[in-house]
Design goal:
By secondary structure, the chain is of the alpha/beta class. The protein is 30% helix and 14% strand. Helix 4 (44-51) packs parallel to helix 8 (144-152) and helix 36 (1026-1043) runs parallel beside helix 39 (1148-1166). It is globular.
Amino acid sequence: MRMLLEEYDLSLPGFNMPFDVEWRHVSDSLLEGAKQWTTNRDFTVGWELKAQGLEAKFPVILIPGIVSTGLESWSTSPAYKNYFRKRLWGTTTMIRAVVTEKEKWMAALMLDPDTGLDPPGIKVRAAQGLDAASTFIPGYWIWAKVIENLACLNYDTNNLELAAYDWRLSYSNLEVEIFCGVFQQEAREKGCTCRTFYGIHCRYAFLLVIHSLARPLILVLSLKWVEAESGGNGGKDWVDKHIEAFVNIGGPLLGVPKAMTAFLSGEMKDTVEVNPAGSYVIEKFFSRKDRATLFRSWAGSASMWIKGGDAVWGNVTHAPDDMEGSMETHGKFFSFRAPTPPSASSSIPVGVRGTSSSASSSETRHPSVHARHHEDSDRREAENNSDGSSFVTETQGDPPIHPPIPRVQTAPGVGNLTADESTIWTLQHTPYNWQKMIYTNYSIGMERDEEQLKRNNEDHRKWTNPLEIQLPNAPNMKIFCLYGHGKETERSYWYARGEYEQDEIMADAMEPICLNTTECDALSQTSRIPFDLPLSRQTWIDALVTQETMSPKTKNGVKIGEGDGTVPTISLGAMCVDGWKRKRYNPAGIKTVTYEMEHRPESMDIRGGATTADHIDILGSRALNEIVLKVAAGSAEDVEDHFVSSLLGSPVILLSLSIFYNPPPMNSETSYASAKRRWSSPMRREIALVLGLFVMLVLLFQSDFSFQYNSAVAGEWQYGNKPDQPLYDANGQRLPASSSAVIPPPAGMNDLILRWTPDQPMPETTLLEHTFGYTVYDNLYAWNGTIYIVTSNISAFPERREMTSTGYVVFSAKDEVAKREPTDDDMRIISPAEAQLLLGAIASRVEGVSFMVNDPPQFLNHYYHFCAEFLVGIWRAYTSLDLNIKMSGTTKLPAPRRMIFTHTKEAEWRDYASMNQFVFHGAFPSASMEHQEDWIDRAETFKVWKFDRVVFTDRAAAMRTHKFTDVERYAAPAFDLPGSRNFWEPLRSNVVEFAGASRSTGQGTMDTPVITYVSRQGWGRRMLKPEDHERLVNALRKLEKDYGWEVNVVLMDQLTREEQIRLAARTTIMMGVHGNGLTNLLWMNPTPRSAVMEFFYPQGFASDYEWTANAIGLPYFGWWGSQRFTSEERPPRNLNEGFQGNEIPIDGDAVAAMCIHQINLNEEADD
């Protein structure tokens, strides 16, 4: 420009400034950001505060967050010798290992699913020293900026330590000795009067500076472990004496939503926002399945599971952090969209259900459970979504290139899931070992009962959840919560589901049972039962859902909220701003300061510069470093509350009230437990006081009212019905069985509230039938969630532990077994006099027959467990009241009116293929379902409930008899009761007719025999040899040709529910490799020529279907190649090496010959 001006002698009006000066001014303005970026600002904050006179005062311990600490290999095996003492996590060594030896790298970092520790032959340990988390890879700092600035105040390795740890481990598996320096007594040198921490000898209490995941870690180790008698046993004042303050940087106090998606599908916002080409490469190189498998093996990462359930994260109508004007609520944590109707298929991108493209159709070749059934349910759900909501999918331009997406499917009942429901959903789609790890290491509820909060101090599972524990007794300690705000943060999600795929997830089956009552080792334990649930539903974040004009914004299936880019603001600040301001969670009144930092990244700095507030980059921000240095130097009084968010700023009270004041959510296990505690049964002292006052009143008024109870009316119905004959005498001995007991007629509206007087006392509870885990009662009472048996002859009832339990999950460890022992909160056996005092003289009648299920949800969401164990058992117990059930299924027993699950939530009993709900509604069309939520509702009325008749079942109680341990079947003890050989026919007939077949289907020899081979070929596990499969099919087809019999070779998952049941009802002989498809034998019509044939690897055996076949009257034949055995010749269980394999042999000709023998031999008898 200057050359042009001079060459042509041009001049600009008013332009009097020398051009070089102007050019410098313009260039300085344009490049100001770049100059700041290139300026070295290391140590700046430290130098400035040093100039103000600040010096090191408190020893500082830095505790990094998850994935921040480097992990190095200490394996000496030949496969890993090249990595000895090299970082497998962090540094360029990790990158090289991932690129060149991904499988070996994953194997080294994955933990053993059973022990939660290193797998055999592998040893990985946390790097140590300040370098363990100063940088992640060269050029990418983590704690380096904080360390540099602390060094300016004279911090060095004598008073500054970085506490590295293996963040993969669950807290119960962390090597506590790594942290034990905190608790050592001997620290006398250098005039130190406090205990040592990492060898730091101090005159002052120390300062903890923690980041991200280290927040729950510090709750465990420094605050709770050290205090607990079962932990460090440091005493109640240890924290107050030795911790000056802790600075919590970006701590996910209430969990992280992205952790849920990582566990479920190996995804998060970062992975779905990758450009299409990159997404395809990532999926091919490091798939969602690989990522999910790796994440799930790291038990320590489960500490980031969202906590507080719906009370914190919202419900289907609203969430505490919904912004004003939101069109969708974040309370819908996982949303599943209904498929687009076929008419709109032309606008649907490739891979989405409804498209007719070849790409889509090719993706439907995977096993598809009940495809046609799901299509029908999808259409119904599209017409009537769970909450009537809808959304828009933007499909501008070409459809995105995505890793091959199987067709989208939705199942009945899947629409919008809240946090509580998403927790259940995620656990149901994760391996059994992962579920067990969650149960034994973590708790994710919300506790409001202050007494229970105190008791939780001794429960290590609660220590990572600030909603279930109290802060320590440390009034002199201070807490500083520092976090960022203003960066888009994933908060909730749109999800899609596809076909079922082969997975390594094991079925929910019984834990090993200890057969030795004194010592339990590998030789005295049974093997784990191999029920077949080899498939998991393909699930992924629905990246096709994008709507950036709505509130909340949705990008690639991720609904955006407020936070620091990783953790939502509600998790970062709710406890600091409000929860810890309350005595309930902070009884010592520890001062808590919250400092929010606005995210204002510098445009030319890739890490955001001094004004960033990103979850990790905040460690380099100026504001954060200033606060850390001030607190370390003893100037904490200069740090005050500071808010920049609308969520936790002035309107914070509205947010916090919605979390901390709302009543406990009904479907929270913690709330259920606390509800029972708040309204627990009166103590003996309270009963004595009431009795004493009552006696005084009687004497005062000279009343002749008496509690004399006439035992002659024991068990009598008080409403004009003939009393039934009790089945146990006064000594508890069984009397001869009678026919079905008589129950009162249906009640009118005026008969539902019952009142008792001295002349017409409260009806006593009658024990009609009992065996371990199965009891039939008349006149059973419930109050505040506790079951009451009212009887004048307590000795006539069995031990409480034979009838019920706490409903705790079923694990075999001794301490886990002890947790199932029932208490007075679960069931009480009381006299009529006690009942008059405790329950009063009024109750609400629950008429008819109730099936009450006291089981945890652990096994109920599996087709075999629900139908072949639970349903067979409870129905067998009920039908013990009718010994004359006809072959046609005719019975005098009234249908049950309701099924009550006292410990199982609404979504927890439904199986992945929707068979459980189909069978239940088919068997009992007029019965209603009550779940844990409803049971809590009853408890919270403070009213007494009288149940006419209850068939009560409890898995843990059933396990306390040898009848269970002999065959390890929940239903086995029920067969100790008297019963009819046709007990199953009423239920079977109802289900078969519900499926569209006649109840007589399959009877007699006039029908053409039907042979059904349930094939597993193509499933990837437990399959016949290919050539043996072909020979078997050919042999069966020859029977079809020679005898005119019907032969079906089916994959059960490709049939609808109705088709499966109708086919089973018609089947004469059902056969197949051990697997879940054989559960359909329940619907076969037992005849002399019927049979079940099951194929095993030679010498292998599991009795699941053998026991079930015999229970309902079906002959059984097991096969090892050409060798056949019957139930009488049943071998011991043996899950040998080939049991789960794909080389199972079978002699097809021998099987066909046995079919001929079985059908022809018994035709005459059948006629």
